[in-house]
Amino acid sequence: MTEPRRQPRTDVIQHVAFEHAGVIGDVARDRGHEIRLFQAGVDDLTLVQTDPADLLIVLGGPIGVYETEAYPWLESEIAVIRQRLDARLPIIGACLGAQLIAAASGARVYPGTREIGWAPIQPTEAGRRSPLALLANADWEVLHWHGDTFDLPDGAERLASTAATPNQAYAIGKHVLALQFHPEVKAGDIETWLIGHTVELAKAGVDPRTIRRRTAEIGATVASAGELMFSRWMEEAGL
């Protein structure tokens, strides 16, 4: 008797509630994946190691990878990611997630130039040959929301840059996609970001009305492009 096929699963590590998997989660569900959610700093990540999912998504958040004294659980999260990288299992990182992957790969993460709001990225030739190329459907414009940056990990291929942040996206083989920006965000969710990051916006001198207005203009288009990109990446990763 043939055993029933196991349902594929995606694990999501989330750092703040409003920075959720967005269109990445939609793509995973559309491809038949069950979603298992872990809240960093609260939930035990042991299951992510002992019962690894087909895909791990590590999302964004307002803390720094290097703030391990203030947030000691970061060390165990980095260890979880390092184990997955060593096993060459598929992983997607967004913003803080990309920084955590870099740290788990042995690269330096440090304060950089703050970028908040909608702005284009510049793809590399490798980026134009990768699933990232589907962001051309949105003229390469994406949502930025970061103050830290990182060195490119050994063995990684740079996919995109901005003038302020050379390492905006990178890949490691077919199993790692790391993005400093946020193509996962749905236009309808932007208000939760504006509320959740109100202190940061005020400190940075960013008017939330500017982000809200631009989101109304292009947010849905960028989310659609992001959905196509993640779908292509999962297909190429065998997911």
Automatic annotation (TrEMBL):
Task: Tell me the ranges covered by the Glutamine amidotransferase domain, including all copies.
Answer: 28-189
Give one Pfam family, short name only. GATase
Q: Which CDD domains match?
A: GATase1_1
Q: GO CC: one term?
A: cytosol
Gene3D superfamilies in the cross-refs: 3.40.50.880
InterPro entries, from UniProt? ChyE-like (IPR044992), Class_I_gatase-like (IPR029062), GATASE (IPR017926)
Instruction: Please report the name of this protein according to its UniProt entry.
Output: GMP synthase (Glutamine-hydrolysing)
Q: What is the lineage of its organism?
A: Bacteria, Pseudomonadati, Pseudomonadota, Betaproteobacteria, Burkholderiales
